[in-house]
Every structure is written in C-alpha cells, then in structure tokens.
Design a protein that fits this description.
Blueprint: H1 7-21, H2 26-78
C-alpha cells in the first residue's frame, strides 16, 4: 500500500514534474494519469465481478450435486 502523501510531498512531486516535463505538458500528463486510473479501476471492478460470478456458479454446481446425491440416495432406499 502507498504511504500517506501529504501536501508538502505532493508539491515536491509537482515541482519535479514541472521541471522535467515543463508546464505545457501538464494537461497531457494529467489526462494520461486520469485515464490510467480509470482503466485500473475498471479492470479491478471487472475482476471482482468475475470472481463473484465464479463463486455463485460454484455454489450452484455444489447445490445441484448435493440435490443429485439426495435423489440417488432416496432412489436406492426405495429399491
């Protein structure tokens, strides 16, 4: 996890970015960073949804298997 970044740390990072890239490139850099964050969040959300769906489907499969076993047990008891 990232350490807590306070205002002084963020100002130092901003100053370094301005020195390296110049003021003219800041909007492009900001847009690229924003797009990267959005894509990361979307990928994370999709991964969580896929994981939850896998859990649901495995529960359904387990439930079907259990009901099949119960039916087979009932049939063997009747015979």
């Amino acid at each position: 996890m990232l350490p807590h970044l306070g205002v002084p740390e963020l100002l130092i990072v901003l100053l370094i970015v301005i020195i390296v890239f110049g003021v003219g490139k800041l909007p492009q850099i900001g847009g690229a960073i924003g797009q990267s964050i959005r894509e990361f969040r979307e990928a994370t959300r999709a991964g969580q949804e896929r994981k939850e769906e896998e859990k649901r489907s495995s529960r359904r499969s387990a439930g079907k298997a259990a009901s099949s076993e119960e039916e087979e047990a009932e049939e063997s008891e009747e015979a």
